[in-house]
Predict the structure.
Amino acid sequence: MDFKVLQSLLKKGMNTKIVLLVMDGLGGLPIVPGGKTELETAIRPNLNALAERSILGLQQPLLPGMTPGSGPAHIGLFGYDPINYAIGRGVLSALGVDFDLQPDDVSARGNFCTVNENDIITDRRAGRIPTEKGAELCNLLSENIKIPGVEVILTPEKEYRFVFVLRGPGLNGDVSDTDPQATGKKALQAQALSSEAKTTAEYIQEFVLQANEVLKDQTPANSLVLRGFSQLPKWPKFNDVFGLNSLAIAMYPMYRGVAKLVGMTVMPAAQSMEEEIDMLEQKWDEHDFFFVHIKKTDSYGEDGNFDAKVGIIEQVDDLLPRILALKPDVLLVTGDHSTPAKMRSHSWHPVPTMLYSELCRPDGISEYGERACLKGSLGPMFPSYELIPLALAHASRIEKFGA
């Protein structure tokens, strides 16, 4: 997308409101052939009623067949082409916990994990240890690991997740992950992907070596893996590009981080979905774009818990009337990617999407689900980064192009 062309068409002084409601990992698959997905299984009267007044489709976070990480999937939802605006998970995690990341820092997302006597990973999430335990382990590592020439900073994120930061001269984030992102495998060795990153990779290798020695007697978090080595990019900001005063509301740090990366104002972490809607109501008069993130749909998909994922969708359906009571000019309902419980992982499947506005031409489809969205006027595989311009148009924020 050519941001300059879009910026030249933005109307000034508009006060219309847009809500982007993202159920993380929303897309799913039937558990049995001929069955229903998690979304199709959920009792969702409010979402279905809204679908009748909306336009529907299936958005593609990346190119067809490509499985997205959470970072690029959200970058796309925010209107940036995620192929051209690529960023590692480390920066997003660091910003999400309000870490004061410096331009030369190299950061990564860390997972405490469980390995067996042969160093094979048996649980990438160490039993989802509580955040308090994660913080304790970060302190333990910080007290015992010393690497000459560089400062190592560890900050707990949530549960088994933590932020890893290297600070020092001449660092470069062009380093491969140590996380194989699968059980039944050994952790990988960090490798320099360019000559400029050779010293940084050696620092990371030394950190991992010392960390495994410190953690070896811990249970269940007796090891760790790192991914998404990256440094701060210089990108155009969301508010400048789209002429919006945006607010991000999320429970998990990473999603607050990706919103902060593109320049959104970010609320403190909510503790529940209900509190997220409380924040939306409280800040309604102060902003005109609201990103509201629901995490547990993704978590239960990754756990393979079909019924629990269905339950979260039903809870979101119960909360939908509170959002509609605010009378948004545009309400987008979608996910960042698909996380079918059947696969226990992110997948490449297109994501069900619904755009409501009094200015839309309703498809008249009385259901919000994967197969229903396949019939919608938005199309079966449109790029996710087209959603924000569509929302701006339906909020009367884009002028006519040309004479």
